[in-house]
Amino acid sequence: ANGAGKTTAMRMLCGLSVPSSGQATIAGYDIYRETEQIKKHIGYMSQKFSLYEDLTVLENIRFFGGIYGLSKTVLNQKSEELLATLGLEQESRTLVGSLPLGWKQKLAFSVAILHEPRIVFLDEPTSGLDPISASEFDALIRTLQQTLGLTVFMVTHDLASLANICDRIAALVKGRIVATGSLETMKASADPWVRTYFSGIRGQRV
User: Are 24 and 31 in contact (CB under 8 A)?
Assistant: First the structure.
């Protein structure tokens, strides 16, 4: 639910906020002492801000690639590959602000993994997308998961995305994980709230 602590938990795991207690490591790095190392080994796609809308598609790719420290040669190669993967070759000089939301989200996700991180964090990635665009986004994530061996950590209200993408699910209530496991495990949970909430989810891997 809203206010359960999803985004706060993600910010702590990304090294952006300091936890008040507990222990965790991300990509092998401690979230208290090694936050800068964590930032180098993860990708992050926020809910509200991921791309510069007054830059073109190609300019966004090159800008973020430069931030991630990619060399010019590698960046040129990855830019071409990314545009081809997304089918945006003809839109490379189009301002991002004029793209449909579905294309923006797919581009934002792709840019977040441009430097081949070990794990990528997605904050409500399908929020505001129509069902077709959301399904296409799920398919892109699943394809890149399999191709790159990428771990995706996602917070979402989108039940279809849970069914289509997630191998493991956690239910967060008032800052605490009340259940975790596969979709089938959640449906069979002893917790009546968890069982009821997840029992209606239908879907299959895209």
Answer: yes
The whole-angstrom separation of Cα 156 and Cα 56 is 28
The secondary element (H helix, E strand) that includes residue 193 is helix 192-199
CB atoms closer than 10 angstroms to residue 193: 12
Distances (CA, A) of 157 to 36, 126, 179, 197: 30, 9, 16, 11
Residue corresponding to tokens 């989200």: 105
Question: What angle is formed at CA 158 by the lines to CA 92 and CA 107, rounded to 5 degrees?
Answer: 10
- 59 CB-side CA count, 13 A: 11
Across the chain, mean pLDDT equals 87
Pairwise CA distance, residues 70 & 94, whole Å? 23
Tens-digit pLDDT profile for residues 187-205: 888 888 888 888 877 655 4
Nearest to 106 by CA among 143, 54, 69, 70: 143
pLDDT, tens digit, 9 for 90 and up, residues 138-187:
888 888 888 888 899 998 887 777 777 888 999 888 888 888 998 888 88
Among the ranges given (53-57, 93-97, 109-113), the one the predictor scored with the smallest mean pLDDT: 109-113
Q: Of 130, 69, 78, whose CA–CA distance to 105 is shortest?
A: 130
The C-alpha atoms of residue 204 and residue 169 are separated, in whole angstroms, by 15
For residue 173, the one-letter residue type is: V
What is the distance between the alpha carbons of residues 153 and 27, in angstroms, rounded to a whole number?
12
